[in-house]
Specification:
With about 130 residues, the chain is mostly beta strands. The chain has a single domain (about 10-125), classed as Sandwich (Immunoglobulin-like), CATH 2.60.40. Helix content is about 0%, strand content about 45%. The strands form 2 sheets. Strands 1, 2, 3, 5, 7 and 8 form a 6-stranded antiparallel sheet that branches. Strand 9 (about 105-110) and strand 10 (about 115-125) form a beta hairpin. It is globular, with a radius of gyration of 14 Å.
C-alpha cells in the first residue's frame, strides 16, 4: 500500500484512514514479532488524515492493557493529529502504528469535529 493513497479496503472513519503497512487485518499473527519491554508487539499502520482537519485516536480504557498507540513517544492510548491545511494528495500522513499483546478485536475511537466513530480492528484470525 502506498502511503497517501488509501485503498478502499483500509479502515476509515471520518477524516481518518488507517493504512496497514506490514499486516492485513484479520490474518493470523504469524510469525510472532519481537515484543517490547511491556510485552507489546508492534504493527506499522500509517494514519492518513484529510488535509485541513484534526482528529484524536483513542484506545478505550477496557483495552489499554492489551494495546497501545505508537505514533509518538509516551502517547500510549490517545493521540491528537493535526493535518496540514493543504496536501498534494489530499492527506497528511503520520508514521507509527499499534502494538498489541496478542490476538484482539480492538476497538479504536476516532474523534473529529465533535463526532466520534468506532473502528474494530482485527489482529489475529477470527477474533472479531
Amino acid at each position: 500500500m502506498e502511503v497517501g493513497a488509501a485503498a478502499a479496503s483500509e479502515p476509515q472513519a471520518g477524516p481518518v484512514t488507517l493504512a496497514s503497512l506490514d499486516y492485513d487485518f484479520g490474518d493470523p499473527l504469524e510469525p510472532p514479532r519481537d515484543a517490547d519491554a511491556t510485552g507489546h508487539r508492534p504493527y506499522k499502520i500509517a494514519l492518513l488524515l484529510r488535509a485541513g482537519t484534526e482528529a484524536t485516536v483513542t484506545i478505550p480504557a477496557a483495552y489499554r492493557d492489551r494495546a497501545k498507540l505508537t505514533y509518538s513517544p509516551g502517547s500510549d492510548h490517545s493521540v491528537r493529529f493535526v493535518a496540514c491545511p493543504t496536501s498534494p494528495d489530499g492527506d497528511s500522513d503520520f508514521a507509527g502504528g499499534i502494538a498489541i499483546r496478542g490476538p484482539v478485536c480492538l476497538p479504536v475511537d476516532i474523534t473529529s469535529a465533535g463526532r466520534t466513530w468506532r473502528l474494530q480492528l482485527e489482529f489475529g484470525a477470527d477474533v472479531c
